[in-house]
Design a protein that fits this description.
The protein is α/β, with parallel strands linked by helices. The chain is globular.
Length: about 550
């Protein structure tokens, strides 16, 4: 090798990330990461984003990727740091976030001595990532990094993990850095498949669409609406509605399916064909002996996640292809083979949804919420309506309100693919940190983040990063001084209203004081009339603000 190619492992690591298109490195440094921190001085174009705990590191990176569609990198400290990060990594697994997660590892010279903070990192990460490995030679670092990026970004996308021993980072050698590889998965089905698919769709007398996250990742927000028009079918969001998967104000949109198995079955029973477009197939949270899928239901599935296709229910037509590219070519085929008669039928079917689609339900919810304008503590429905109404054009909403999340989706219209981000896995504590990454990815858009008080305490340190970076974020803490959703479920599932270990009001958490201590402007809101002025002021400030809103505590 030429001496011109001599480079340290630490500098090579940063250079390789940049070659893969990474612009931000999210991290929380420890001793084994000092070589990386040292190398950053020679790479000022790599922005280092400090989070104050490792789960926040991964959540911020997750948010950045979800709001940009780009590969993201984050770094944590040896075994305890990776352990702290696993909850957020679990979330990233469910969203298929293309992420390179690295952890510093003790120097290989320790051999079998198992120094302080040591453990085998690869087995810790492996269950939650697409690929996990440890670099044992500096010469292998370029190949490992490029392979990791290729795996993370190839559909179905997802996180990968690399263990980086300190000696590899400090070593110097003559190595070739190579170059990035990307696998083009934006492929359309062949013509005969499209024809067969169109014919099967037209055979259905009462079809329905279930839309999911690949609408976002494939940038198919417009195409899915045109597909619903062409087919003349109502469109539901999947049971875990964690993104903007369908234009809410379109006449076909019916809202999200719930995770109540009986209710989902009753909703789906009238249909004779379900078309899953880049969606999970009825992922639930609480078991019930009633299967959510109606018996003998015909299924079509279009998407790139081959694990999800036909996983639990037989699928009549299974198309592994990019959602956007498929819909772009399927719609004209469908229209051509349908003819004028079907177009009239499609229009009639969609017109019949006018009194029960999302827009109709939203109008009804608004009427009910408006009657709560004077209620104290502040009614959750009223608060969520105020949040939705206060949003300026191009605002982004992040939601981890739990007991308020469904209510928010009743008022908040999805208007573009990045307009909404919610919790995907149930691993709470995601939103405060993820909001930071989302804001960094979309710096010209204000972000409003709605979070329960219980969820907030899992990741409250992330407020410091938001304040440090002076991001245009308004955090709305729905403060009922306890785990209201757990109380509701204890009462509903077990008939027990003795809520042990579900309150935190003695002492009460001072979110205003806490936020101010972390450098953020904060205000307590207890009067319903003060909600909208406080929201308007916070959003207009263009900086990080926290509103601690006292909301209803009742569980009935």
């Amino acid at each position: 090798m030429s001496s011109l190619n001599r480079i340290t492992g630490r500098s090579a690591f940063i250079s390789l990330l940049k070659d893969e298109g990474v612009t931000h490195l999210f991290g929380n440094p420890g001793t084994t990461e000092l070589p990386i921190m040292h190398a950053l001085t020679d790479h000022p174009d790599m922005k280092f984003i400090l989070a104050l705990q490792e789960s926040l590191v991964v959540a911020m990176a997750d948010g950045y990727s979800r709001a940009s569609g780009e590969l993201v990198a984050c770094n944590v400290h040896v075994a305890p740091g990776l352990g702290n990060a696993l909850g957020s990594l679990y979330n990233a697994k469910f969203t298929g976030t293309p992420m390179i997660l690295t952890a510093g590892q003790q120097e290989q010279g320790h051999g079998l001595m198992e120094p302080l903070l040591y453990d085998s990192l690869v087995p810790m990460a492996a269950p939650l990532v697409k690929w996990a490995t440890e670099v044992t030679r500096l010469e292998d670092l370029p190949r490992v990094m490029h392979r990791a990026a290729k795996i993370a970004t190839t559909a179905p996308t997802g996180p990968v993990f690399i263990s980086l021993p300190g000696d590899i980072l400090n070593e110097e050698a003559g190595i070739e850095l190579g170059r990035a590889t990307r696998v083009d998965t934006a492929m359309r089905p062949p013509d005969n498949t499209l024809a067969d698919l169109a014919d099967r769709l037209l055979q259905a007398e009462n079809p329905a669409i279930v839309a999911g996250p690949e609408i976002v990742t494939s940038d198919a927000f417009e195409e899915i609406a045109k597909f619903a028009d062409a087919l003349g079918a109502p469109a539901y969001q999947q049971t875990i509605p964690y993104g903007a998967h369908f234009p809410s104000e379109h006449r076909a949109f019916m809202g999200a399916l719930s995770r109540d198995q009986k209710q989902v079955r009753s909703v789906l029973e009238p249909f004779d064909l379900l078309v899953f477009v880049g969606a999970d197939v009825l992922r639930m949270s609480v078991w019930d002996p009633v299967d959510p899928m109606p018996q003998d239901m015909a299924l079509i599935h279009i998407g790139l996640d081959d694990w999800e296709i036909g996983k639990n229910y037989p699928t009549e037509v299974a198309v592994r292809a990019d959602v956007k590219e498929t819909l772009k070519v399927l719609i004209p085929v469908l229209q051509e083979r349908a003819g004028l008669v079907h177009r009239d039928t499609a229009d009639t079917r969609l017109s019949a949804l006018a009194d029960k689609n999302w827009s109709a339900k939203a109008a009804s919810m608004r009427e009910k919420a408006s009657a709560l304008a004077d209620t104290t503590p502040i009614a959750g429905d009223w608060l969520m309506m105020q949040v939705a109404d206060a949003l300026p054009d191009k605002a982004i909403v992040v939601n981890e309100g739990l007991t308020t999340s469904n209510s928010l989706l009743s008022f908040l219209p999805y208007r573009d693919r990045y307009s909404y981000h919610g919790l995907a896995s149930g691993g709470i504590g995601w939103a405060i940190a993820a909001t930071v990454g989302i804001s960094l990815a979309q710096p010209d858009r204000p972000v409003v983040s709605v979070i329960g008080d219980g969820s907030a305490m899992y990741s409250v340190q992330a407020l410091w990063t938001a304040a440090h970076l002076k991001l245009p974020i308004t955090y709305v803490i729905c403060n009922n001084r306890g785990y209201r959703i757990i109380k509701q479920r204890l009462l509903s599932f077990h008939g027990n209203d003795q809520f042990i270990g579900m309150d935190f009001e003695d002492p009460e958490i001072d979110f205003v004081g806490l936020a101010r201590s972390l450098g953020m402007t904060a205000e307590r809101v207890e009067n319903p009339a003060a909600v909208r002025p406080a929201l308007d002021k916070a959003i207009a400030s263009g900086g990080p603000v926290l509103l601690d809103v006292s909301v209803e505590r009742s569980v009935g």
